[in-house]
C-alpha cells in the first residue's frame, strides 16, 4: 500500500474516533440520568413475567382400588394445562394418616404404579413435594420416596413399609431400591430398612447409609470412622420428623401448616391452595348470599348447604353479594364453613361487592374468585366499636391457621385503626401484607423486611378485585358463575338448592313476631293450667307453644340445652311451690326467675353482653320479659273473667264454689245423723290409718280409728259419733 493511501486511512480513522468521542460526550449525561431514574417501565403490550404456580392434591389413604389411577389422571390434567416454556409448577401431594384406619392396607401394586408415574419422564415437568401428616406406613411409603422433596408435620412419622406383608419378596426389594435410588430423597438402604425387618441399617461416617453386610466389610477395610445403628434386625425403620430433619438431615423442612410450607417453598400463599382441576367427579351446588347478613340468612344457607352435602355435593360455590351485617351471624357462617369436611371444597365468588364483615365469609372459603372491578372490604352495613375491633382481631388470630390465610388484611377491612404494611423477603419474590403483630409472630420474622403501609388512616381497607388478585388475597379471576364453572369443568348453570318444607317452616317459626306470639300464648295457657291442676287443655296448649318457641330458637341458633334446662327446672320449682312446699315462696320466685332467664337467653346468642352489637340486642331480649309480664296479666284476666263464660272451655278448669253452694254443702253435712250406730259392729272395708270406710250393719260410712291402725276385713265396733263420721275400735 502506498504512503498516500496510508495517510488517507489514518485520517479516516482519526475522524471516526473523534466522532465516537463526541457521541459518548453527548450520551453520557442521558445515560446517567436514566440510571438515576431507574429502569424503564414496561411497555403496555409487554406480557407479564411468568409466575411460579403451585397446586395441592390430597392422596387418599390407604392406596387401593382405583386411587392410583385417579391421582395419575389428575396430574395428567394439570400437565395438559401447561404451555411450552411455562415454569415447573410445584405440586404438593398431601398424605394425611392422622386416623388409625388410614395407616395400613395400601396395596403394593397400586402404590408402585403411582410411584413410577411420579418418577416418569412425563411427570418431570412437575416439581413434586410430599407433605406428610400422621403415621405414613405400609406401601404408601413409596409415594414420598418418589417425590423430589419431603416435608413433614412435626408429629408425622415415616416407615414400617412392610407392615402388611408376612414376607418380603425380591420384587418388593427391587421396587424400593428403584424408586428410592431414582430420587435419592431418602437413601435406598434406609428405604429397604423401612421395608425388610431382616436387615440392619447403619449410618457410617455421618452421611453414608449401609446394611449390615456392607458395614462389616467397611469396618474390616478400616473405612469406618464413626457409625450409628439406625435399624436393628427384626424391626422396620419408623422415623419421626425430628429424626429425619435434625438428626439425619434427609428431609427439607418440618412444617406445621400450609402457611409455613408456602414460605419454606418460596411460593405465594394463594398459589398453594388446592386446585380443583386436579380432582374429578365433582358434584356442585350454588348458594346465594345477597344483601345484609342476618342470622336468618346464615341459618337458611347453612341448613341448605348441609342438606346438599349430605346428598353428595362436594363443590360449594357461594355467590356473595353483601354489604355486611350481623357480626355474630358472620362469625357463625365462618365457623360453619371452616367446619366442613376436607372432601368439600368451597369457593367464594365476588362479582360485585363483599363489604365490611361479609368479606370474612370469603376468607373462610378454600378459594376466592373475584371480578377485576369488584370491591372487597371497606365501609359497609356494620361498624365495629373499639371493643368490637379488639374482639374481631382475636377471633381472626384464632381462625387464621384453620383458614390458611393471613388475617391482617381481613382485619383492616373492618378496623380503620389497624395498620398493614407490605413485607418482603430479601433475595426472593415473596411478599406478605401484615400488621406488625402478625409479622412479629412469624416463625422467621427476622427474615422479612417491612415496607410501605397499604392502609389509610381512619379508613377501613377496601381492595378492588384487580388489587386483591395482584396481592394474592384472592385466588382466581372470574366475573360470572359461568367462568368459574368453565375453569373447573362444571356445568354452566349450577343448581341452587331449594328450601324444603321443613326449612321454610323453621323460617316462619324463627320470625320474631311468631316467636313472641307462641311465648305470649304459652304463658297464658301455663297460668290457666296452674289454676286447674292436672293435665288439661291449657297445659297441652302451653306445652305446644313453648315447644315451638324453643325449637325455633334452637334451629335459629340462639337456644341450646342451657336454656331448655333452665326453663324445665323453673317450671318444676313453680309446681313444687304450688303443690308440694307451699308457704315460703322461695321455689316459686326462683322458678319464675329461671323461666324468665331461659326465655331471655333463647332470644340472643350470648349469656352476658360484651360487645357493642350484643349491647344493642339487649333491649330486644328484655322485650321478652315484657311479653311474659303482660302474658301473666292477660292469663289472670282470661282465667278469672272470660274462661268460665266460654262454652266448652269453661269445662277445662274448676272454680271455687260460691257462697250459696258452700251453704248447701254445710246444710247437707249437718243433717247427717249417725248416733244410731253407736255400739253396733261391722267390718272395715279399707285399712284404717286412721281413716277409711267401714260397713256397719247395712250402711257404708266414713270412720276413724280411735287409736290403733286397723287392717282391712277386721271387725270393728262404733264407740262414738262426731258429726258425719263415726269413731270405731277393733273388737280384737
Assign the structural class, choosing from mainly alpha, mainly beta, alpha/beta, alpha+beta, or little secondary structure: alpha/beta
Radius of gyration: 42 Å
Main sheet overview: 7 strands, mixed
Overall 3D form: elongated
Strand-residue proportion: 15-25%
User: What is the tally of helical segments?
Assistant: 24
Report the helical percentage: 40-55%
Instruction: Please identify, by name, the CATH architecture of the largest domain.
Output: Alpha-Beta Complex
CATH superfamily of the largest domain: 2-enoyl-CoA Hydratase, Chain A, domain 1
Query: What is the residue-mean pLDDT, rounded to a whole number?
Result: 79
Number of strands: 26
| CATH domain fold name of the largest domain | 2-enoyl-CoA Hydratase, Chain A, domain 1
Q: What is the total number of structural domains? A: 4
Cα-to-Cα separation, first versus last residue: 172 Å
Unreliable runs, pLDDT <50, ≥5 residues? Answer: 1-6, 30-52
CATH class of the largest domain: Alpha Beta
Fold and architecture overview:
With 732 residues, the protein is of the alpha/beta class. The chain is built from 24 helices and 26 strands. The strands form 6 sheets. Strands 1, 2, 3, 4, 5, 9 and 10 form a 7-stranded mixed beta sheet that branches. The protein has a 5-stranded parallel beta sheet with strand order 11-12-13-15-21. A 5-stranded mixed β-barrel has the order 22-23-24-26-25. The longest helix is centred in the N-terminal third of the chain and has 35 residues, at 3-37. Residues 677-729 form the NfeD-like C-terminal domain.
Amino acid at each position: 500500500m502506498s504512503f498516500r493511501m496510508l495517510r488517507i486511512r489514518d485520517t479516516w480513522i482519526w475522524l471516526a474516533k473523534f466522532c465516537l468521542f463526541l457521541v459518548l460526550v453527548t450520551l453520557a449525561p442521558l445515560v446517567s440520568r436514566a440510571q438515576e431514574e431507574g429502569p424503564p417501565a414496561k411497555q403496555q403490550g409487554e406480557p407479564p413475567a411468568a409466575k411460579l404456580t403451585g397446586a395441592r392434591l390430597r392422596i387418599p389413604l390407604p392406596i387401593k382400588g382405583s386411587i392410583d389411577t385417579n391421582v395419575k389422571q389428575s396430574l395428567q390434567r394439570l400437565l395438559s394445562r401447561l404451555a411450552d416454556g411455562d415454569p415447573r409448577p410445584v405440586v404438593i401431594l398431601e398424605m394425611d394418616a392422622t386416623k388409625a384406619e388410614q395407616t395400613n392396607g395400601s396395596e403394593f401394586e397400586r402404590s408402585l404404579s403411582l410411584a413410577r408415574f411420579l418418577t416418569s419422564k412425563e411427570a418431570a415437568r412437575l416439581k413434586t413435594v410430599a407433605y406428610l401428616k400422621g403415621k405414613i406406613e405400609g406401601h404408601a411409603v413409596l409415594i414420598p420416596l418418589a417425590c423430589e422433596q419431603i416435608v413433614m408435620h412435626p408429629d408425622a412419622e415415616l416407615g414400617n413399609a412392610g407392615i402388611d406383608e408376612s414376607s418380603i419378596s425380591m420384587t418388593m426389594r427391587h421396587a424400593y431400591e428403584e424408586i428410592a435410588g431414582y430420587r435419592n430423597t431418602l437413601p435406598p438402604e434406609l428405604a429397604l430398612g423401612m421395608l425388610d425387618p431382616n436387615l440392619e441399617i447403619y449410618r457410617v461416617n455421618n452421611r453414608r447409609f449401609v446394611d449390615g453386610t456392607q458395614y462389616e466389610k467397611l469396618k474390616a477395610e478400616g473405612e469406618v470412622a464413626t457409625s450409628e445403628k439406625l435399624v436393628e434386625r427384626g424391626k422396620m425403620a419408623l422415623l419421626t420428623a425430628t429424626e429425619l430433619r435434625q438428626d439425619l438431615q434427609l428431609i427439607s423442612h418440618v412444617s406445621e401448616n400450609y402457611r409455613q410450607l408456602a414460605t419454606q417453598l418460596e411460593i405465594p400463599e394463594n398459589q398453594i391452595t388446592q386446585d380443583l382441576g386436579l380432582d374429578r367427579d365433582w358434584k356442585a351446588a350454588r348458594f346465594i348470599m345477597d344483601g345484609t347478613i342476618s342470622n336468618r340468612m346464615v341459618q337458611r344457607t347453612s341448613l341448605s348447604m348441609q342438606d346438599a352435602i349430605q346428598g353428595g355435593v362436594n363443590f360449594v360455590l357461594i355467590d356473595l353479594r353483601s354489604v355486611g351485617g350481623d357480626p355474630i351471624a358472620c362469625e357463625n357462617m365462618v365457623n360453619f364453613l371452616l367446619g366442613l369436611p376436607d372432601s368439600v371444597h368451597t369457593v367464594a365468588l365476588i362479582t360485585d361487592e363483599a363489604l365490611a364483615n361479609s368479606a370474612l365469609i370469603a376468607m373462610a372459603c378454600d378459594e376466592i374468585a373475584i371480578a377485576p372491578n369488584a370491591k372487597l372490604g371497606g365501609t359497609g352495613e356494620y361498624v365495629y366499636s373499639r371493643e368490637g375491633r379488639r374482639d374481631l382481631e382475636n377471633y381472626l388470630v384464632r381462625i387464621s391457621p384453620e383458614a390458611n390465610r393471613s388475617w391482617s388484611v381481613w382485619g383492616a377491612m373492618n378496623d380503620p385503626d389497624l395498620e398493614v404494611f407490605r413485607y418482603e423477603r430479601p433475595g426472593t419474590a415473596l411478599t406478605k401484607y401484615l400488621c406488625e403483630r402478625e409479622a412479629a409472630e412469624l416463625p422467621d420474622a427476622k427474615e422479612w423486611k417491612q415496607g410501605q403501609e397499604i392502609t389509610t388512616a381512619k379508613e377501613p381497607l377496601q381492595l378492588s378485585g384487580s388489587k386483591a388478585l395482584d396481592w394474592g388475597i384472592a385466588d382466581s379471576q372470574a366475573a360470572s358463575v359461568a367462568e368459574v364453572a368453565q375453569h373447573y369443568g362444571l356445568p354452566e348453570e349450577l343448581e341452587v338448592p331449594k328450601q324444603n318444607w321443613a326449612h321454610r317452616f323453621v323460617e316462619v317459626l324463627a320470625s320474631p313476631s311468631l316467636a313472641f306470639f307462641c311465648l305470649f300464648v304459652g304463658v297464658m295457657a301455663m297460668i290457666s293450667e296452674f289454676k286447674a291442676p292436672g293435665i288439661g287443655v291449657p297445659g297441652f296448649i302451653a306445652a305446644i307453644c313453648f315447644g315451638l318457641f324453643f325449637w325455633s330458637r334452637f334451629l335459629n341458633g340462639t337456644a341450646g340445652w342451657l336454656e331448655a334446662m333452665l326453663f324445665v327446672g323453673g317450671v318444676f320449682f313453680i309446681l313444687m311451690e304450688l303443690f308440694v312446699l307451699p308457704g315460703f315462696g322461695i321455689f316459686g320466685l326462683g322458678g319464675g326467675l329461671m323461666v324468665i332467664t331461659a326465655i331471655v337467653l333463647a332470644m340472643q346468642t350470648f349469656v352476658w353482653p360484651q360487645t357493642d352489637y350484643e349491647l344493642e340486642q339487649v333491649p330486644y331480649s328484655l322485650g321478652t320479659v315484657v311479653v311474659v309480664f303482660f302474658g301473666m296479666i292477660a292469663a289472670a284476666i282470661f282465667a278469672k273473667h272470660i274462661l268460665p263464660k266460654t262454652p266448652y272451655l269453661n269445662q277445662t278448669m274448676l272454680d271455687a264454689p260460691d257462697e250459696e253452694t258452700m251453704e248447701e254443702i254445710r246444710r247437707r253435712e249437718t243433717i247427717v245423723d249417725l248416733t244410731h250406730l253407736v255400739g253396733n259392729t261391722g267390718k272395715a272395708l279399707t285399712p284404717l290409718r286412721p281413716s277409711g270406710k267401714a260397713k256397719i250393719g247395712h250402711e257404708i260410712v266414713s270412720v276413724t280409728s280411735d287409736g290403733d291402725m286397723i287392717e282391712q276385713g277386721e271387725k270393728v265396733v262404733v264407740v262414738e259419733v262426731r258429726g258425719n263420721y263415726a269413731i270405731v275400735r277393733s273388737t280384737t
